[in-house]
Every structure is written in structure tokens, then in C-alpha cells.
UniProtKB/TrEMBL annotation:
Annotated Amino acid transporter transmembrane domain residues: 56-457
UniProt GO cellular component terms: vacuolar membrane
Claim: Transmembrane helix is one of the keywords in the record: yes
Gene Ontology molecular function, alphabetical: L-amino acid transmembrane transporter activity
Keyword Membrane: yes
Transmembrane domains' residue ranges: 59-81, 87-108, 150-169, 189-206, 213-235, 255-273, 285-309, 329-354, 398-418, 439-457
Protein name in the entry: Amino acid transporter transmembrane domain-containing protein
Topology of the protein relative to the lipid bilayer: Multi-pass membrane protein
Amino acid sequence: MGNEEKKGSIVLENFNSTANLATNPGFQSTLSLGSKEVINEKAYNPFEHRKVEHPNSTIGSLVHLLKSSLGSGILAMPAAFKNAGLAAGAIGTLVVGFICTHCVYVLVKTSQEVCVDAKKPSMGFAETCGAAFEYGPKRLRPWANFARTFVDYAMTCTYLAALCVYIVFIAENFKEVLDEYIPEYKLSVEAYCALTLVPLVLICQIRNLKWLVPFSAIANVFLVICFAITMYYIFSDLPKPEGRVVVASVTQWPLFISTVIFAMEGIGVVMPVENEMAKPQQFLGCPGVLNVAMTIVISLYGIVGFFGYMKYGDDVRGSVTLNLPQDEVLAQSAKILMALAILFTYSLQFYVPMEMIWRQLNEKISVRYHNITQISIRTTAVVGSVALAAAFPDLELFINLSGAIFLSTLGLLTPAVIDTVHKWDRGLGPFKWILWKNLFIAMISLIALFAGSYTSIRSMVDKFYSTPVLEVVANVTSITMNDTMTV
């Protein structure tokens, strides 16, 4: 026969179950190999293709998820309850917590499903959003790159805004303590914000995540001790709830929603935690890592918010540590520990936006200028965040604004949109309930975005213009009000 093939002969070019057993394309063979029917190739399973060098155990992943959600935001929950009332706050915390948990579930589930379409073992937040459009309805596929870019930039802005909140946390807690023990050198919050500049610039020059681990460990210890001391004061001589607002004005609810979203959302770390799991199948489901972690988070946030507001009422401040007694060493030590914990956490949070910024600039800059460029960008980012924090040093309003603009968009609106796009051609369920559910989540997000932003900005403007010009100058130059009035 030489090199010629006879018509009708069977040629086995490979020996797997998908081999072509007939040269006649019109003939579909039903032969079996190894007692198995010749069927389409096995569906891609991303979990089987993940190669994680140091995978996290299920317990380790639970700890990481708790750590990402149980931060300084829990101390802002009493202030959130001030804008809702005891009853509305308790119910609202459960509702917002459930919605946040569902949005995380939707994001992770969509990521796992688009990994099958893209035949990739894992994806991050931005990649998942881009892939949902890329493998979604044909008319929306050109928007895939925009979705990836939008989430990248939104994540960067979210973390930079959170860094501004951290600076105000540090400044206000140090001011509370030093004003008590060094009354002759009272400085403004703006001045304390400026004093954080040098240590933050230095610590943010650390570029290797490995060297930030000790700072993170120390910060966690400080946070636990501070939280324990704070709870001790909250439950000491706890007043009866009769004197507290049960349901606050509806106009204040957007501020409550914004604060709870800011405190509770850990959307940025969810995908890295799931991607690094040894058994990612255990992240979702019941009980599952996500459900267990969020049950603990919602419970603790509700308890701290409820009893913190019951204790301090409308006098509660942006961080409940600021309400602790001024004349007791234990209370003052909690404020110092809180400030130091946030200071040490700053560099770890700074790592995320810096990684995103550097990814965009890395290939556009010559290698010989990489070092000086990194130093310049890191220094500029820290200086900018300190300047913004000093310009608007009201902690509670800053938290409300950050939660309203950034986390309501990333944590609620984006997962709702991605879920809708992904399910559009795959089925939206009976009566299109998935579409209606996502529209409800989007509505909650937009209410928090527009109403929360408007209320926060209006409060900032009112506070700024209600402050006498002379007092503003005094704050900037660190002159006390008494000296100013004397002049």
C-alpha cells in the first residue's frame, strides 16, 4: 500500500477515548475502548489543575478570612448603630451581613464556573469579572477588558481610601492619650496626621511580603488585646436600653449601611484565600469556610455595635476606643495598642494597591530606574493619603464616605452585575428570580452609593464651613484655642 490509505480503512492516530475511528465524517462510531463509550472529552476541573506551592488548610483559610473581616472596622459598629437605632441596627446588621455573604458566594461561584470555560485553574477578582463578560452574551464580550480594568482601579482606590481611614485612626487615638498626659503640648488631629508621615514612608518602602509578616503578627496581638479591653469597658455598668433610640430616622440609614459595608466587606481577599486552599471545594457550601466565617463576623459585629451604642448612646465616636475613659491607664493603653496595630497594618494594606500600580507601570519603565521609581511612587502615595486624611480628619464621616463610594460598588454592585451577565445565557431561574434578586442588591448598593455619599459629603462641608477661619488656622499651625482667643 506504500503511503496510500485504502478507502474505508480505520486509522488510529492516537489511543485515547476521543480518537477518530472513521475517516467518513458522516459516520459516528459507537465503538468502545476499554469498555467505555467514546464520548466528549472530560469536562475541565479547575481544582485538579491547581498547583499551589504552599496550600492553606481549611482551618487556615477560615483564619485568613476572619482576619480580613475582623479588623479595625468592628470598632466603628457602635457609631453605625447610632445611625440606625438598636432594633433597626440589629436587624440591619443581619440583612447587610447576609447580602455581603451572598455577594461573596456569587463571586466565588462565578469564578469557579468561568475557570471551566477558560480552562484556567484559578482567577482573581478582576480576572473573574473580565471572564464573565468574555464568556457571556456576545453583545457584552467587548466589555471584558473594561470590566477587568475597572475592578483593578476600583480595588486600588478602595485600599488607598482605607489607608486614609487608618491614618485618622492612628492620629485620633494618639491625640486622646497624649492630650491627657502632656496637656501643655496639645496638637490638632491634623498635626498628628502629619507626624505619621515619616514612619509610614519608611515602613512602606518594604517591598517583600515576607518581611511584613512580623508586623502583621504584632498588629494581630495588639488588636486582640485592644478588643478585649474595649469589651471590658463596654460591659462594665451597662445602662438599660430605654434611653437609646430604637429606630433612627430613615435619612440616617444610608450612613448605617455604608459603615457596616466598610466594616464587614473583605471582598478583596476572598479570591486569594479561595485560590490558595488545599481543598477549595470546602470554601462554599454548608457549613463551608465562607458560611462559618461570616456567621462569626456578623455575630461579633452585631454584639459590639448593639452593646457599644447601648453603653455610649449618641456620644459614641467613629472608633469606640475613643469613648474609653481618659483618666484610666488601662483604657489609654487600649488606644495606644489600637494606634500601633493600625500603624503596623498600614504597610500590609499598602502592599495591595502598590502591587496593582506597579503592574501597570513595570514594563513602561526602564529596569535601571525601577528602584527610584518604586521609592518615588510609594512616597507620593503615602504623602497623598496623609494629606487627604489631614484635610478631612473626621473619622466617622471618612468611614461612611469610603464605604459608600468604594465598597458598596465592589462588594455589592459588581458581584450582582457579574452574576447577571454570567447567568444570562445559562438561565436566570424560574420567573427570572436571579435577575430580580440581583436588581434588589444593585438597588441597595446604589442607595448606599448615592445617599451615603451625599450625606457624608454634606456633613463634611457643613462641618468645614461651620468652623471659624481662625480655628482652622489654629488647627493647621497647632495653636490651641485658648491661645487663639487671647490673640
